[in-house]
Design a protein that fits this description.
binds pyridoxal-5'-phosphate, two-stranded antiparallel ribbon, alpha/beta
């Protein structure tokens, strides 16, 4: 069989930038300064500048970023946070972790992002915040969401874990709401070599609070101003991220080229292709197609060594972990339809045209076989 094509290929990336990453790692190890310190401060400054934001606070993961951002905004017990059920569970877990309740609303059938009209309908006196996810790398409709939030006095917390490099009306995630939360999980568009995350904001008081909370509530070594957490970004991860950040624009451009190429090559194939909102520059964390024969196509691709995936097969309102919220099938029709039909194709900046052609060919074969079988 031909060589396997993974969903993401971090080894291909390391082959290109290995020297830079190794040098960053050696620098940290020879300085033996592993927690916070200058490496973290330098990366925070660089990533804030990249986002066009005033502040970036490095934390231990994307999940920690979401949780600390909610705490810094004072969201807690008894509060409701409106979000999507078509996302990774960490989005909702952070809301639950601070004692608030995630309120799931349905998604837009074209972008798979929060439907602003439904956000507005879900607002109650308990609602404190809206948490849009820029799913697959495409920003949610931040123009409408911000408008609704302003009218109702709600915080807007971006889950930007998949959207490094995206734009909405020329602005980056990080400044599209009150606060934005990034994940640097290895497979994300900007990935560490372990767990890492960041909170980005233009609000000085929010950044200050997250700084305090991530490091046991202290500013000075022995004075703990409040009960905080051990959720710091470590220096090794910061140095690796700092080495990778200058490549992010190029990687995003490569992802856009490959995504457009997929869309051209698959234009005449019986399969639904992803659409980009006119206000958006997509970061293409994932290229997600839809077909009613999803599970069969997935098996067909896997049999050919093609690492397709499903993001996400079971929406959060149907997860056992959230059974207590009382959600059930039929509550979120668009979310449920997308969950049953979505399929993520391999996409990473180093992917070659030949590899992409093989993926396209395999899909064409599958669709053609179906036509003949019918
Ligand atoms: C990856 C991800 C997270 C969580 O990030 P971690 O760094 O793994 O904690 C949160 N939300 C979304 C949408 C993600 O894709």
């Amino acid at each position: 069989m031909a060589q396997a094509i993974p969903l993401v290929d971090l080894q291909a990336q390391y082959r290109v930038i290995g020297d830079e990453v190794d040098a960053a790692i050696r620098r940290v190890i020879s300085a033996t300064s592993f927690i916070l310190g200058p490496e973290v401060a330098t990366f925070e400054k660089a990533f804030a500048a990249y986002c066009g934001a005033e502040h970036c606070v490095g934390v231990s993961s994307g999940t920690a970023a979401l949780e600390l951002a909610l705490r810094a905004l004072g969201v807690g017990a008894g509060d409701e946070v409106i979000t999507t059920a078509h996302t990774f569970i960490a989005t909702a877990e952070a809301i639950s972790a601070v004692g608030a309740v995630p309120v799931f609303v349905d998604i837009d059938p074209v972008t798979f992002n929060l439907d602003p009209g439904l956000v507005e309908q879900a607002i109650t006196p308990q609602t404190r915040a809206v948490m849009p996810v820029h799913l697959y790398g495409q920003p949610a409709n931040m123009t409408r969401i911000n408008q609704i939030a302003r009218e109702h006095g709600l915080w807007v917390i971006e889950d930007a874990a998949q959207a490094h490099g995206a734009l909405w009306n020329g602005q980056r995630p990080g400044v599209l709401g009150d606060v934005a939360c990034f994940s640097f999980y290895p497979g994300k568009n900007l990935g560490a070599y372990g767990d890492a995350g960041a909170v980005v904001t233009n609000r000085a008081e929010v950044a200050e609070k997250v700084r305090l909370l991530r490091n046991h509530g202290r500013r000075d070594k022995y004075v703990h101003e409040e009960i905080g957490f051990g959720e710091r970004l470590d220096a090794l991860q910061a140095a690796i991220l700092g080495a990778k950040l200058p490549h992010l624009e190029g990687w995003t451009a490569a992802r856009n080229r490959l995504a457009e190429r997929y869309s051209q090559l698959l234009a005449d194939v019986e399969i639904d292709l992803p659409q980009v909102a006119p206000e958006a520059r997509h970061a293409w964390h994932l290229y997600v197609v839809r077909t009613p024969r999803r599970d069969e196509l997935l098996r067909h691709l896997h049999a050919q060594g093609i690492g397709a995936g499903v993001h996400y097969p079971l929406p959060l309102h149907l997860q056992p972990a959230y059974a207590a919220l009382g959600g059930g099938p039929g509550d979120l029709p668009v979310t449920e339809a997308v969950a049953e039909t979505c399929l993520s194709l391999p996409l990473y900046p180093e992917m070659t045209d030949e590899q992409q052609d093989r993926v396209v060919q395999a899909i064409e074969e599958f669709v053609t076989d179906l036509v003949y079988a019918a």
